[in-house]
Model the fold of this input.
Amino acid sequence: MAFGERFDIPDGYLNTASIGVPPARVADAMAKAVSDWRQGLTKAPDYDEPTGVARRGWARLVGVDPANVAIGASVSQLVALVAAGIPDGTRVLTVVNEFTSATFPFAAQAHRGVTVTEVSHEELVARAPEFDLVVVGVVQSVDGTVADLDGLRASGVRVLLDATQSVGWLPADLSWADWVVCSSYKWLLGPRGAAWLAIRPDAAELTRPIAANWYSGETPWDTVYGLPLRLAGDARAFDLSPVWFAQVGAAAALDWFVGLDIAAVHDHCVGLANRLRAGLDLPMGDSAIVSLDNAEALADAGIRGALRAGRTRVSFHLYNTEDEVDRVLKALR
Done:
């Protein structure tokens, strides 16, 4: 049990930054959805409710109005809506080793004169005024570095934040950013196939519905057939058709998450990470992710982490314990 929910997870799983493990309620909801499908008991409109629950839950965690949130299946799909809408010649700034789902959609616009420049984290805020748009993860996938959100907000430059590695453990109001994108399958403990894009209203004009479809209509079940184009009047105009089972799982996870004290989750996760740092004589940090020198001993001790950029990445979520930290320390010693 962790934070009131049952998890069927073995000790030593420190790899949430790659794949989050769902509580039983999420797995059970998806199993029921598959069972109902198998028996022909479902109708397509039945999935509208979980899609709405997930949208509203994610919006609440990020601090935005659900009307400003579009749904999709992956980060890169949703970022592409922004990359297609920015003007020719836009100068994009990012950090070295940023996750490519956030940056490749912009790099793919090079034929329009869009450029993407990489700098170190230490340079990001200072260099931001030289550019038109900053694209950065709230927390870096490669090593857990937390972005200087206050500095970016004060820079006056448009900002797209990838919150995939932060929402679920790091309390933060991200409503100030022009765009916030996030996937469900890591810290939100949902399945892969659900993602969201928050679009600040004054940034909608720089966002393009390049995958306009029946679900992006004002009343989706009335936009299944025929022209003219008739899109929703809010961010749902940018919706991609939902991956049904993924939305069922995301709804079950987010319905639970919005009732948690995320500050308490943060303290638990970062507390475990800092317990590890202290045991290794590393400086204390503000992230639930710790990047270590490649440590084959961890795998031998039954610790599940991930190899990223030549180092071993471990990540701590609400189902992890101090005993698991101590197992890591014992293995490394």
